[in-house]
Write a structure and sequence with these properties.
9-stranded mixed sheet; 9 helices; about 30% helix; about 15% strand; alpha/beta
């Protein structure tokens, strides 16, 4: 473990080094951390071999410190943290970014702020955005008030399995991995932020892989579809079952090989495939029991 100080926070991070291998930075979601992502089996980059992997806890999360200013937890601010950490750990290198939800929002803002920094983006579970963000923002504000009144226990971190998205069922119950005194500010920061405007997304020209799942109001398919349509070089896969999510690490590994030009024929599992905008695609023999839908724009 190591730490890096930046703008009122100390970011806790670790690096899995493999000399000469592609560099990957892995982020996490709101109220989560490296440890919690591992428990929830969403740390897909950790299961990919042959990469140099940088993982860190966002400010106010896990082992990292933070402030009580909600503005510090908006995604553009978290993007500045990310870029500062990359300058410290991987100076001058292009990296592949991987992150769910809040991590996906952070990556998009960082890619716009420093277009030359990223070789690719893997956006997992894109969160509510634009029109759907407004209702979510009200939920975050209510949660912040509840935490201030009754403590972190006021949040129900573990919904019943039947209430989870179908692809998320069977995962262990986990609690928020944040400091209680910082949680209201973190939630208010989330309420006051959004993904970049759709027209801004068209400036992100690096390859993008979007990994979503079905029936999740906090991470709706509508956000993932808009990202696929607006990002110039984006593909989208939508998981329908827990088994589909298991293959996300393999999808990431396949795409990294392709993006690094080590094996440009590798395109990931594709038992079921729908082509975007009505274009026909050649069928391939899949290598997984993939039961979700695969969209690929290039």
């Amino acid at each position: 473990m190591a730490t890096f100080g930046i703008a009122g926070a100390t970011l806790d991070f670790d690096v899995r080094d493999e000399p000469g291998a592609p560099a990957v930075v892995a982020l996490h979601g709101l109220t989560s951390s490296r440890r919690r992502e591992t428990l929830m089996r969403l740390d897909i980059a950790s299961r990919v071999e042959g990469i140099r992997l940088l993982r860190y806890d966002a400010r106010g999360h896990g082992r990292s410190g933070g402030t009580t200013d909600p503005a510090d937890y908006r995604w553009p601010a978290l993007a500045r943290d990310l870029l500062g950490l990359l300058d410290h750990v991987l100076p001058g290198e292009r990296v592949h970014g991987v992150g769910p939800s809040m991590g996906a929002g952070t990556l998009l803002h960082a890619a716009l702020a420093d277009p030359g920094r990223f070789a690719s983006l893997t956006l997992m579970l894109p969160p509510t955005a634009w029109e759907t963000r407004r209702a979510r923002a009200r939920d975050y504000e209510r949660s912040a008030l509840a935490v201030e009144a009754a403590g972190i226990g006021a949040l129900d971190a573990g919904a019943d399995d039947a209430d989870l998205p179908p692809a998320a069922r069977g995962r262990p119950r986990t609690e928020p991995d944040v400091r209680a005194d910082l949680l209201p500010a973190i939630l208010r920061g989330a309420a006051a932020t959004d993904l970049p405007a759709p027209e801004e997304l068209e400036r992100i020209t690096v390859p993008v892989q979007i990994l979503a799942w079905t029936v999740d109001p906090g991470h709706p398919e509508s956000t993932a579809q808009t990202l696929r349509e607006r990002l110039p070089a984006a593909g989208l896969s939508i998981a329908a079952t827990p088994d589909d999510v298991v293959w996300w690490s393999r999808l990431l590994a396949a795409r990294l090989r392709r993006w690094e030009s080590l094996d440009p024929t590798v395109d990931g599992p594709a038992d079921v495939r729908e082509a975007p905008r009505g274009r026909p695609r050649r069928e391939r023999t899949g290598v997984s029991p993939w039961r979700g839908r695969w969209f690929d724009s290039g």
